[in-house]
Amino acid sequence: MLCAVMFAAIKLAAPFTDGAVLQRDMKVPVWGSAGVGEKVEVEFAGQVKETTAAADGRWRIDLDPMKASSEGRDLVVTSTSQTSQTVHDVLVGEVWLCSGQSNMGIPFWSDSPRARDRYGHQVGQITARPTLRFAHLGNSWSNVPRTDEDVTWHTATPEYLVHGGFSAVAVWYGLYLQGALGVPVGLFGAYVGATDIETWTPDCPTPCPESRKDQDGQKPSQYHNGKVAPICPYAMRGAIWYQGESNTSETEIPKYVGKMRDLLNGWKRVFENPRYKLYFAQLCPWGNPLVPLMQEEQDTFARSEPDAGMAVLCDVGNLHDIHPNDKETVGLRLALLALKRDYGCDKVVADSPTLETWKVEDGKFVMKFRNVKKWGIYDPDWRIHRDPAKSAEYGFEVAGADGKWVKAEIGNIQRLPNVEHVEYRGQITNGELVVFSPQLKEPKSLRYLHSAPWRGYLLNEAGLPVGAFHIGGLDAGKAAKQKAAAACEPLP
User: What is the pLDDT of residues 30-65, one digit of tens each?
Assistant: First the structure.
């Protein structure tokens, strides 16, 4: 009597397709499926690893850490039954996930003037980077973690950059990161407009906002399950993240720090990387008076989490559109954070100024900031600020014991020396910042960028702006909460 033995064809997991980029300097999990009990051999870059498919047909090996390589090599997987699968042109370099809602999803170029980067076509048509690669994760939401996804890796060619529809923030991030490091870069794209943070969080422990809790795609973990789970635990350095507009409501903002922490800790777990990084875009102003409160919440998370960093973007927003088309600045500032914190570029200035200490002297707030050696301030149209008296239009407000906010001036803008006529060029005399209002002798509280137009042009020596903050005893956002209560729904 003859026994027929049936072997399942060996199969690699979703992210292992031609043109893939593997993470350097970390163990690299490679996994897939085969017939139960089959021996599986994986060969790549001189390494040969063996394992056996488990009772459910799944198998996994971990390649040893590898150095970066721009040489396209084959990843070959063979099983007992002599079935095999070969992935061609595999590089080794830096890998990141790029995720969030519509501002992460805005493509490098498209037919819509409202949904593209302002320079995408111009730059894309002259850019070819064979070792910069993109993989868009196209699945929809799912109630359970999926393993299947059709992942195709694309190279940064003019054709793909202009017509491929990949995230503009991610493209700029990859261009700047690779330009500085000179190694292959692979970027996964997972983004959906108008999504809450909870739907991207693995095994999310908290509910989505009440107004959307019953909507498919907005339930906890649904987009993680559909889009991101199929590539876990692919080795990567971390993620860049642009999201928060959908969570900008009076009830949701106070919860956002905890939800950001859930997201980061969830990704650390599913990607098996305890040092997984999360660099994220602070929301741009778009006319919603609650945005400064969310910006401060995002800042609180960034300052409390050593594996996170925030790009301040108060100079980028479009007050008439939630989707500003300057995505280059976003990608650049996120890349600066990664270069400084992960890649040894110690001399890079990557962080915006943040308040360190403050006091009130002679009716004036005197403040010291971290991450600034020399101040500069510009007009909203980027002309150099010339008239100190007009500094009251640049975002500072102070209040006394009565709680009434009034516009405040910067008191230590420097006059240009050796010039007969009065001329100012935006410089501030020292590292301190002096702010006051001639209308108020005894100020108690100060806030910055909490009133229209919510845009700020107070910069450090590298051109990185100060974000929204407040000090003193008053609730800086009380008026915004009252104005936006109930009527202000998050925009898509």
Answer: 999 999 999 999 999 999 999 999 999 999 999 999
Full DSSP string of 67-118: --EEEEEEEEEEETTS-EEEEEEEEEEEEEEEEESHHHH-BSS-S-TTSS-T
Give tens-digit pLDDT for 411-448: 888 776 666 656 666 678 777 899 999 999 999 999 99
Confidence band of 73 (pLDDT split at 50, 70, 90): very high
3-state secondary structure of 399: strand
Q: Measured between alpha carbons, how far is 292 from 468 in angstroms, rounded to an integer?
A: 6
pLDDT at 417: 67
Q: Where do the structural domains in the chain lie, given as residue ranges?
A: 11-90, 92-342, 354-484
In 312-460, beta strands by DSSP E: 354-361, 364-370, 376-377, 396-399, 405-407, 409-410, 413-415, 424-428, 433-436, 445-448, 458-459
H-run or E-run covering 31: strand 28-33
Q: Could you identify the residue written with the tokens 């997984």?
A: 276
DSSP string for 184-240: -EEEEEEE-TT--GGGGSTT--SPPPGGGTTSTTSSTTHHIIIIIGGGTT---SEEE
Q: Measured between alpha carbons, how far is 122 from 390 in angstroms, rounded to an integer? A: 37
Residue 482 has pLDDT above 70, yes or no: no
Each residue's pLDDT tens digit, 298-311: 999 999 999 999 99
d(CA 475, CA 103): 29
What is the pLDDT at residue 106? 97
Q: Which fold has domain 92-342?
A: Rossmann fold (3.40.50)
Q: Indicate the residue type of 12.
A: L
Query: Dihedrals φ, ψ of 268, to 5°?
Result: -60, -40
Q: Mean pLDDT for the chain?
A: 92
Longest CA–CA span in the chain (Å) reads 109
The sign of the dihedral angle between the CA atoms of 415, 419, 425, 427 is negative
Tell me, which fold does domain 11-90 have in CATH?
Answer: Immunoglobulin-like (2.60.40)
Do the domains spanning 11-90 and 92-342 agree at the CATH topology level? Answer: no
Decide the pairing of beta strands 445-448 and 469-471.
antiparallel
Looking at residue 428, its pLDDT comes to 83
